[in-house]
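Re: the 117-residue chain
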Amino acid sequence: MEIQALKIYLKSNKITYEQLSERSGIPLNTLKNIFSGRTPNPRIDTMQAIEAALCLNTRDISFTDEEKAVGIGTHGTSLSDEEWEIIELFSELKRVKGEATARAIKTMIKSILNEKN
């Protein structure tokens, strides 16, 4: 999404740069530089974080049965149906609840994995 369209979206939804900074994890000054034009070509991951924080990244992750069978992105290891379901659920969680929630879930999983039994 282009900067001008994002500005209109923010204004029409009464979202401040401060709120966007909190939602996206992007420093306030960085956002101000992007929206003022001082940063004419922001990094793609920064723009994706803005869109995710505003729930504007509508690209759903879905996989064909063929892609699932070969385990796309798994270096030749096929994923189970349960693993595919987790990937799809995480994608939906991130789309609906935002990047901050997705980060919290990842942190929780890492914490559980690092627990001493």
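Residues 25 and 100 are 8 Å apart (CA to CA).
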